[in-house]
Amino acid sequence: ANPLMEGIVADTPSVIQKTGKIIQAQGIEGRCQAVECDFFKKIPFGSDAYLMSNILHDWPDEQCRIILTNCHRAMKTESKLLVVEMVIAPGNEPSVAKLLDLEMLVITGGRERTEAEFNNLFVSSGFKPSRIIPTKESVCVIEVIRV
Predict the structure, then answer these.
(1) pTM here?
(2) Which of 10, 46, 89, 122 is 20 to 30 A off residue 36, Cα-Cα?
(3) Torsion (CA) 100, 106, 109, 113 in degrees, nearest 10
């Protein structure tokens, strides 16, 4: 734990209502804020790092570019963006990511993506892919930097 770290949770009004209660219950009001946000319009400005977890797979490429471009506008030059998503591995082996790809398409119109597809989204939104960090779970942490 890092007791000096501060954060902002930015999400829809219904999520922020619940988040505010959790922040209070944990006693971290001085270090964490809950802010209403529509990432299709504007994202809070000036943080050192931004974390998006399971956001992009909900949306088709055009909407992802809007979200990422708004994030790019909000970021400082030295900020990093961390994206937590499944990354479809190359080849034709069965995987949870491929199953979820179909599920996301049917339910939200979104999709899971390959590394190349993510890189295309990031580059077209003003980012440079830095690295993909595998986790013990089925998701990866994709680190990108603002260009």
Answers:
(1) 0.91
(2) 122
(3) 20
